[in-house]
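Supplementary material to the annual report.
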Amino acid sequence: GQNIDQPTEMTATEGAIVQINCTYQTSGFNGLFWYQQHAGEAPTFLSYNVLDGLEEKGRFSSFLSRSKGYSYLLLKELQMKDSASYLCAVRDSNYQLIWGAGTKLIIKP
Amino acid sequence: IAGITQAPTSQILAAGRRMTLRCTQDMRHNAMYWYRQDLGLGLRLIHYSNTAGTTGKGEVPDGYSVSRANTDDFPLTLASAVPSQTSVYFCASSPGSGGGTDTQYFGPGTRLTVL
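Predicted assembly:
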C-alpha cells in the first residue's frame, strides 16, 4: 500500500529553527509537495521537490532524497504565524497526490 | 472573484437526504479535484476531472458522484447521505492535467455534518 508518515505534533520556540520530516512509500514518484494549513482554513502551497537536494524559499526550505524516500521541511526564524499544520504529499505513478496526515506545529513565545 | 469558491460554507444534513456541494473556479484550470479531510487522516481524493467532460474515481468514491459540464464548475453530489460522510470537503484545481510542477490550489472548504 501507499504510505506517507509525518510526526503528529511538534513544538518549537519563536525565533528558532524546526525541521519537519516526511517519509514515503508510494507506487511511483512524480514529485513531493509541502502545504501549510492554518486551523479552519484551506491548505496553501509551500514547496515542490522532484530532484534530490535542497530548495530554498525565504525562511522555508525543503529537502528531498528519493533513494531514501525522505523529505523534510525546514522553517527558520519561527514566527507565531507559523503555527499551523504542515502537510506532505507525494504524486504517485497515476499522477494523483497521496497525502500525509499532517504535522501540527505549535510555536511558543 | 479570483480563485476557487465553495458553497455552502457549512451544512447540517439528515441521513438519507441528497446534497450537492458546489465548487467554482475562475482560473481556467483544466483539472479539478474533490477531497475529504478527517481528523487524524490525510486528505483523501474522492473524484477528479482532468478536463471538462471527463471524470475519474479517487481513493474513496463510494456514495459520491461528480460531473464536469464546463471548465469552471465541479459539483459533488451525495445521493443519500450517511453519518460516515461527516467531514470537511475541499475542492481544488490545477492548471494542467496533473504532471510536472502542476500545483493544486484549494477552495475554503465545506464543513458537512450528517446526523
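DSSP finds no helices and eleven strands in chain A.
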